[in-house]
């Protein structure tokens, strides 16, 4: 099955930028949707952005205008460019993938990467 590994998190000051990466590996199954979710401290997980093959991108309201999701199919990698970061963007960011295989569809999630924005 597909495995996901995130990277790129860290500590940044308010107004700064980070680029998260999520690399998929381990299987030739078809990934038709990849997205980034985040879980702020003490809160539920929420969608940040997703990119669907043949459809396009979708953003949460808080991400529009500041975050950009993109992918590099040759590298099986999806990116999340985050600009104008705010302290409320602090949280653990997870990469998700929806995968289609010969035996059925399944979902995968990475281990996450921590993003901390200081004021």
Task: Put the structure in a nutshell.
Helix content is 0%, strand content 61%. The chain is mainly beta and 119 residues long.
Number of strands: 11
Q: Describe the biggest sheet?
A: 7 strands, mixed
The structure class reads mainly beta
Count every helix, treating DSSP H or I runs of 4 or more residues as helices: 0
Helix-strand topology string? EEEEEEEEEEE
Tell me roughly what share of residues is in helical segments. under 10%
Strand content: over 45%
Give an overview in words.
There is one protein chain. The protein is mostly beta strands. 0% of the residues lie in helices and 61% in strands. The chain has no helices and eleven strands. The chain has strands at 3-7, 10-13, 18-25, 30-39, 46-52, 56-59, 67-72, 77-82, 91-101, 104-109, 113-118. The strands form two sheets. Strands 2, 4, 5, 6, 9, 10 and 11 form a seven-stranded mixed sheet that branches. The chain has a four-stranded antiparallel sheet with strand order 1-3-8-7, with no helix packed on it. The protein starts with a strand and ends with a strand. The mean pLDDT is 95.
């Amino acid at each position: 099955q597909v495995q996901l590994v995130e990277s790129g998190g860290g500590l940044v000051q308010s107004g700064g930028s980070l680029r998260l990466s999520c690399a998929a590996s381990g299987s030739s199954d078809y990934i038709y949707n990849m997205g980034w979710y985040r879980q702020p401290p003490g809160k539920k997980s929420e969608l940040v952005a997703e990119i669907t093959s043949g459809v396009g991108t979708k953003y949460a309201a808080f991400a529009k205008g500041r975050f950009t999701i993109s992918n590099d199919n040759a590298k099986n990698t999806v990116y999340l460019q985050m600009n104008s970061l705010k302290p409320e963007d602090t949280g653990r960011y997870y990469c998700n993938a929806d995968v289609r295989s010969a035996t059925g569809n399944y979902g995968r999630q990475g281990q996450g990467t921590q993003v901390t924005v200081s004021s």
